[in-house]
Structures are given as C-alpha cells and as structure tokens.
Amino acid sequence: MKKIVTGNKAVAEAVRVAKPDIVAAYPITPQTEIVETIADYVANGQLASQYIAVESEHSAMAACIGAGIAGGRTFTATSSQGLLYMHEMTNWAAGARLPIVMANVNRSLAPGWNLWAEHTDALQERDTGWLQVYVSTVQEAYDTILMAFRIAEHNDVLLPLMVNLDGFTLSHIMQPLDTVEPGDFIPPIHLPETIDPKNPRGYGTIAGPADYFRFRWEIERSMRDAVRVIEETQAVFSQRFGRSYGLTEEYRCSDADVVVIALGTLGKEAEVAVDILREEGINAGSLRLRWFRPFPELDLAGKDVVVIDRDYSFGFGGVLAHSIRSKNMVNVFSVIAGLGGQEVTYDDIAGFIRNRRIGEEYWFGVNGHV
Amino acid sequence: MAIITEIPTEEYILKCTSACAGCGDSLTLRYVLKAAGPDSVLVMPAGCTAAFQGIYPKTAYAVPVVNIAFGAAAACASGISSLFQATGRKTRVIVYAGDGGTLDIGLQAMSGAFERRTDFLYICYDNEAYGNTGMQRSGATPLGARTTTTPVGKTEMKKDIDAIIAAHNPPYQATASASYPQDLFRKVKKALTFHGPTFIHVLSPCPPGWRYSSENTVEVGRLAVKSGMWALWEREYGKLAISAPTKTAMKKPVPLEDYLSLQGRFKGIDEKTVELLKEQIAENFHSLATREEAL
Amino acid sequence: MTAARLLAMAALHDGNYATACPFYGAERRGAPVVSYVRIDSHPIRIYSQIRNPDLIVVLDQSVMQSVDVLHGLKTGGKILINSTHKKDFFGYVTSYVDLTGIALRENLVVAGNPILNTPVIGALAGTGIVSADSAKSAIRSMFSDERNIRAAEAAYHEVRV
Hints:
The complex is a heterotrimer of chains A (370), B (295) and C (161). Chain A is of the alpha/beta class. Chain A has helices at 7-18, 32-43, 57-69, 80-85, 87-95, 120-123, 138-153, 212-241, 265-279, 319-328, 346-354; strands spanning 2-6, 22-24, 50-52, 74-78, 101-106, 131-134, 161-166, 174-178, 202-203, 248-251, 258-263, 284-289, 291-293, 304-309, 333-336, 361-363. Chain A has two domains: 2-241, Rossmann fold, CATH 3.40.50; 248-363, Rossmann fold, CATH 3.40.50. Chain A contains eleven helices and 16 strands. In chain A, strands 3-2-4-5-7-6-13 form a seven-stranded mixed β-sheet, sandwiched between helices. In chain A, strands 10-12-11-14-15-16 form a six-stranded mixed β-sheet, with helices on both faces. In chain A, strands 1-8 form a two-stranded antiparallel sheet. In chain A, α1 (7-18) runs parallel beside α2, α1 (7-18) packs parallel to α7 (138-153) and α9 (265-279) packs across α11 (346-354). Chain B has one domain: Rossmann fold (3-Layer(aba) Sandwich). Chain B contains twelve helices and eight strands. Chain B has helices at 24-36, 48-51, 73-87, 100-104, 107-115, 161-166, 181-191, 207-210, 217-227, 244-251, 256-260, 271-294; strands spanning 40-45, 65-68, 92-98, 120-126, 172-177, 197-203, 233-236, 239-242. Chain B starts with 23 loop residues before the first helix and ends with a helix. Chain C is an alpha/beta fold. Chain C has a domain at 49-158: Pyruvate-ferredoxin Oxidoreductase, domain 3. The longest helix of chain C has 12 residues, at 2-13. Chain C is globular. Chains in contact: A-B, A-C. The A-B interface holds A 21-22, 24, 49-50, 52-56, 58-60, 62-72, 74, 88-89, 92, 195-197, 200-208, 211 and B 38-41, 43, 50-51, 53-59, 61-69, 71-72, 74-87, 91, 108-109, 111-112, 115-116. β9 (202-203) of chain A pairs parallel with β2 (65-68) of chain B.
C-alpha cells in the first residue's frame, strides 16, 4: 500500500502496527508530528495503546521504564533538548534492561536555539547501552521501527533502541512509503521477571562493588550478541517484505579507492557525489553507516577514508571519525559539516572527496582549512 | 466497603534492614504495607527507604519494589499504573517517597501525574530533610531547624505540599504520623478505595537527623501533633475532616517548647523564630476550624 | 505544502519517484512559503535544497516584488504563473492560468480564500509534468469534494503558454 508521507508520519505508522502498550511522550520540534499522529490514532481507536501525555521528557522515559518493568511494550520519541533532559533516565532504561524503542529526530543543541539537523544529540547517548541506528529515507524509517521492536525485545538483547532520523531533512520531507502488515514479525512481548506480587522482587536495588560490574558486563555481552540478532532480523525482514538492510549501506565500494562515510541523509546524498566522481574517473564509494551501536566491523582495507561528522566532541574531534580511526586503526580525512542544519550538497561532498587530506580535520564553512 | 480497624499481624518488612534504630520511616512503611497488603507494588525513588532496602541479591520488602531515579517516582508510577489499567490488573501502585523526592526534585513529576489523574497512591514520608545523604535541608525542613546546609537554622518556612496537592483536586488526601499507627493504617486503607491520584503526607521522625535519642521516636511524633506543629486531617473530595488527636490539640495544645526542646536540630533557636512557629500553628488551627465548619 | 504533496503523489501514480519538502522559512500567515518537489524515474537521493529548478510555480504574483522567485531557474526553464493574462520572463518558457478565477468560479473557497492547491495540479498536468489521470487520482486520494477535480480539469484545459 503505497503513499507519500513525511519521515515523522512513517515512524508513527510503524508504531501503530507495532502496537505498543504504552506511549509516553512530550512534544518537541521537529518530532511533534510523531506524537500528535500517535495521539490521534489512540483517540480514534486505530491504536489501542495508552497514551500518557507526560509533563517532561525525563518523565516520558521514567513512565516507559515503569511500564516496561510491568511487562509492557513501550515507545517514545524526542529530539535534542528533550533527549538531553532524558539522559539520566536513558541510562536507567539500559541498565534496567528494558527494550524501549525511541525515535529520535536529530536536532542540534542550544544555545542558540537551532531546530535543524545535527547528530550530536544522539551521539551523546552513545555510552548508555542503547542500540542506535540512523535511517536515511522515509521507507527506511518505517521498516527500521518495525525491526527495532523485534530486535530490542529479543531475549539475547533486552536493551533499549534508538532510531534516529534527521530533523527536518528527513522528518519533514515526503517520500513514497510502502506499508506492511507485520503479522507475527513482531512477536508478543514477553519480558522476564516483570512485576508479580506473588513473586516480589526488588528492581534496581543497591548493588555493591562485588556485583555491580557484572551487570555492566551483561549489558555489553548483549550488545555484542545484538549484532547477530540485528542481522537475523534484517534477513527475516527481507524474506518477508522484500527490502534488504545491512549494518551499513554500501554503494560502489567494492572497487573504490576512496570511501566516504556518513550517518543519515548525508550518507544517502553522498551516493550522488560518488556517481559524479566516477564520471570524473575517481573510484569513489559511499559507505553509509546505519548501526552506530553496536558499532559494526568495517572493511576499509586499501581505501582512503573520508568521514563526514554531523556532530562534534569538543576538545577531541568528530565522533564518527574517531570511532573509525580507533576501531579500524586507520587515518581518515575528517570533515565536520552539517552542524545545525548547515546545507551540504552532493557537490560539496564530491569536493570533500576530491580535496581530501588524510590525517586532517576540516570544518566546512570555516574560512580556510582547520 | 468495610474498613478494617484491626491491624493485621503479617509483616511485609522482613528482618534485618539497615534502618537506623528508631527510624520513623520504617515504622511508617510497616503500617503502610500492612494496610496495602501483598497485591501492591511500591515505587521508591532514591531516599532512606531505598537505602535500607538491602543489597543485591536481597530485598527486605515482601512486595515488588521498583526503585527509580530521585525525581522520577511519580512518572514511573504513571507508567506502571497505565499498563495495569490497559491489561486489567488490580495490583495497587503506591509511590513511597521522602520529602526530597516529593517536594523538591520530585515535584514536577508528581504534579504531572496528579494532573493526569493517575490511579495511584502517593505517600510522602517526611523526615524534613534529605536524610539519605546526611540531613541536608529540603523544602520540607521547618523554619529554624538546623541541617547540614542550614547550620544556623533554616530561614524559610516549610513548603506547604498539602496545599499544592489540594490545588490538583485529588479525590482523597490526608496527613498522618507513624506515632498514630491506627490512624495511619485507616487512612491508607481509605485512600486505596479511591480511583485516581491520592496523597498521604506522613511525619516520620528521624533520630540522627532531628538529634534525639532513638527510643523517643514515637514520643517525638506525638508531641509534633500535640503541639500543633503537625496536624492530622483528611480531605475527601475537598471535604475536610480533622482527626481526633488534632482536635484535642486544637482545644488544648501542648507548649511548642516541649516538642522543640527534645530535638538537637532546634537547639539555640531564637525566641522570634519560636513565635513565628507558634503564629503559624495558630493560623493553621484557625484555618482548619474554619474550613471544617464551612462544609 | 499540499500542492507539493499532491504533485508528488501524482508523480508516484505515474510510476515515478518523488520527494516533496517545505522550505523552513517563517511559517507566519502572509509570509512567502516555498515548497520543493523533485520527480525522477529513479529513486531520489538528494536532500539538499533545489538550487537550479526546472520549473517554478508562482501561486501569488505579489511575492515576486519582495522575493527573487526565479533565482536559479535553469536557462530555458519553465514558469507556471497564476495570472489572468500572459506574462513574459526573458529566457524562460512561461505558462499562465487564472487559478484564482477558476477557484472562484467553482466555488472552491475556504474562509474567503480561493483554494489554489488542487487546480494548480491540473495546470501542471497540462504542462506535461504529470499525467491528467494521475493528477486526478492524487486529488481524489486527499479530497472527497469533487469541486477540486472540476477546478483541476478547468486549469488543465485553460493553461496557456
């Protein structure tokens, strides 16, 4: 069933067929259409969830945590300041091993107030134990939300999962969407050790130095097992619904001399730059990273690597560039571009690749090279 | 529905918590759980009660307890309550939070949960400071009381959380004290007969914090009521009923000095402050009397 | 925005790919609003703003006094303008149609304002960007009031170069 909808609407549509028990959310630009659409579905009976219009994002995550411990499937959505406000509780959600699914519409951080796309918000959550994926089309947003519930709720994972989509650049544009009937693709939720007065338990009680570290190891163990679960889920999705997704999306990489790596819509537009460069005789390829946590194994052997970071870690560098440097022990040309919705076109991306200087960092738009 | 006035013997706080000797909070919780019974889940933010719950792998409470971040109790409870409602479960959701987690850091979430008419009972055990972290001042610390962050006595009045709750129009709210266990028990039972947000504010004397000898907890709690520093009442759909011990205190209060002198936290309190406290007690009694008459 | 969406839907019905996006300028009443549509026979991978459009649609001529509406339009590019009479813009191919007049004739008016979103799709079909059938399917999928279709058909027939 094909229609033309915004990225936000696609997320809401997917949530509707995933049928969470509880949706607890607080509005924030550019996510607002997601929560409004879900509230609408609940109000007109298209979605039999309880919608809790909480009074803050911190409370949104706390409510999802409560509902999760009680055994329910939960969903929330936020951006930027809201995600930051939630941060204490996003940590709690992962530590509590709850498969909460959240759509985060990537937006830059204030001050100044800037509503447009930047990945720093989600990347600041990278240490929490949340799985993180970045989508680049409306269809991918829909499909990934469906897969998110199945992955997060898998017994070998049981960790919360954040689906990221670029603020305005993807959340607000309309692209074709093919919806599906998931059937049993998302099995009913069945969490271990939920609230049971006949078997009273303490949840999140004091854990001393002799025990706490074991819980943290368990999170990491599940994070590693999640790679297999993600790949299996994507394979089943492909069989059932005919669309294939990997840990990354590679375009003309196999014979490339230089690859450009980015998250989100920049990673998609980079393919156009690749086509232009190929016409010029430059063997370029685009490697769009989808999953950021768990961070995938990348094969970059024998290739120049250009990384575009739509984020920054002050006093250190682009988060994606440095992740790749340390994981792959490879030097990269680190481009910082797109902060606060800064316009970056396929021509600009082609320029980054043509003019690359491996081992250096380049802030697009800042005079001269940095 | 008959309200049982005989307190059951079943204990829900198991032996060997790490509570301080004479802890008013644990005394409060004991009666709360007896009234609530086993088909309950406690939502407990950071605070004394979470601290003496025990260490993994053990828990001292014979009901499910969801520990949660300091400011998040009411929101977490909101999620649990909604899920139970969606799945037709009758288990009662009870937040059990200290004054810090209620009046200060937890205020926003609580206000939101009340405004949304969450079906839960919110119990605030009030030891008038941040007990768990070593007795720093909270919004609930009374005027003139010394804490580690008000070493010469607090210069602001105690925040009136009952008035704030009243502004949310809950079907039921009450004040109580661990020194009057039957009254507390009855009020918890009563609160649990309502659907929607209910609130009970319980004074829980704290030996190390208030600086009195641990065997005097019950007496200190009684003096708080008898002097009028703590009033016992309940409001059902806004209709006020003053509880018997406060009615007695209104007729013939015990001198405030009897209450203050027992506690090291009021040592050195100046006369002007004592007068202010007495004025406030008088005002409060007057206000209670007027409101009860008017209905 | 609605017009952009309708155009994208019509393109989809034609078997093409389409993306529609608003430009995030001021969203105040009365402020110039721009939307973009990209149509291609292959999947569209571009998200950055359109710098060199092939076609510009002007629904409100008065905007041209304060905004350089034609900025970036390719040489020989097309303009479709809501106008009662012919307009010429040097170097471009201009089509015109009285969308306002058509809307008023068909009584396609809401809160005193003529609706231009649906008739303009008819006009666009008239210039060959999308097929007439797809234009109608797109309109019907969003609007049940047949006045929208009549206005679109009128615009389709009345658009002139």
